[in-house]
Specification:
About 35% of the residues lie in helices and about 20% in strands. The chain has eight helices and eleven strands. Helix 3 links the parallel strand 4 and strand 5. Helix 1 packs across helix 2 and helix 4 packs across helix 5. The longest helix has 21 residues. The radius of gyration is 18 Å and the shape is globular. Bound molecules: iron/sulfur cluster (SF4) (2 copies). One iron/sulfur cluster (SF4) binds next to loops. One iron/sulfur cluster binds next to strand 2.
């Protein structure tokens, strides 16, 4: 199945590969906390929802994020998308995330807004996100089987209650599905990220990942992004092998009959900036640090 480009995504470099050479994104690292613990994540690094390991050079407050966007746009006017992808989970930091979006929406009414979340706390904010004009969202959902999820998540925290094992995975899955439904009902373009974890969700020819694709199709998801696990030292999944390119390609091909597949993801940092093919987070790290000081 080919990704058909809907009008909202013409200038989004991740949802529209054609735009990735001319339209850029800036990720605002305003969300340090997370409400779950994935077995592949080391909190010293960025959220692998949307990133490869590598510390963000600063965490910004909402007013600092606005200043940062202004300065970045001076240097990189090709940016069309402002996203929040960590370094924790945007909706585990709702005050910071919503305030940041409010300020930027006011200053830059035409900017596309994009959020990436594990989905746990997303359902209660879908109205706020739609009202703020968030046009694109990503939910990382690597399995729709709680028995598999029990092996992926060490814990899930909802308010003051911490869940573990299958109960944790069941709760997270129910919120992920509700989040996707809520976002789609409000007209957002939705991407599902699924981390490809050898031996965890790749058994039976990748059947668990195909089940994710089937569910995504059922919910009207616009795009699926199978991201190879980046085994991070010091995490339970640090000992797993990184899936090979051929394996991931075959999985994408198989799932592509169900839902359009992203093939150009760069596993960007939570403070990524610039074109996908020309990240400038190193070069503009000084601007970020200055705004966060
Ligand atoms: Fe880490 Fe992201 Fe998982 Fe939270 S959702 S534990 S930040 S990978
Ligand atoms: Fe786009 Fe992938 Fe980078 Fe996210 S991590 S901004 S989906 S290229």
């Amino acid at each position: 199945m080919n990704a058909s480009i809907d009008p909202r995504s013409v200038k989004h470099p991740c949802f529209n590969k054609e735009a990735s050479g001319s339209c850029g994104r800036v990720h605002l690292p305003v969300a340090p906390k997370c409400n779950i613990q994935c077995n592949y994540c080391n909190r010293k690094y960025d959220c692998v929802n949307e990133s490869r390991p590598g510390v963000t050079s600063a965490v910004l407050k909402p007013f600092q994020a606005l200043e940062y966007v202004k300065r970045v746009l001076d240097k990189e006017p090709r940016i069309t998308v402002v996203g929040i992808a960590g370094p924790g989970d945007p909706m585990a930091n709702p005050a910071e995330t919503l305030e940041t979006m409010r300020r930027i929406r006011e200053a830059f009414p035409h900017m596309l807004f994009c959020l990436s979340s594990n989905g746990l706390a997303m359902p209660e904010y879908v109205d706020d996100l739609a009202a703020l004009g968030v046009s694109h969202a990503t939910i990382t959902m690597s399995t729709v089987d709680p028995a598999i999820g029990a092996g992926i998540y060490a814990w899930v925290r909802d308010g003051n209650v911490v869940y573990r094992g299958q109960a944790a995975a069941e709760l997270l899955l129910s919120r992920q599905l509700a989040a996707i439904e809520g976002l789609k009902a409000r007209g957002l373009a939705v991407k599902v990220n699924a981390i490809v974890m050898p031996g965890v969700n790749t058994q039976d020819g990748g059947a668990p990942l195909m089940a994710v694709a089937a569910k995504a199709r059922e919910l009207g998801v616009d795009l699926m992004n199978m991201m190879p696990l980046f085994p991070t030292e010091g995490t339970p999944f640090g000992v797993l092998a990184e899936p090979g390119k051929d394996e991931v390609r075959a999985l994408r091909e198989a799932a592509g009959s169900l839902v359009p597949q992203m093939t150009h993801c760069r596993r960007c940092r939570a403070d990524a900036v610039g074109l996908l093919c020309g990240d400038r987070s190193g070069e503009l790290g000084g601007v970020l640090a200055a705004c966060g000081a």
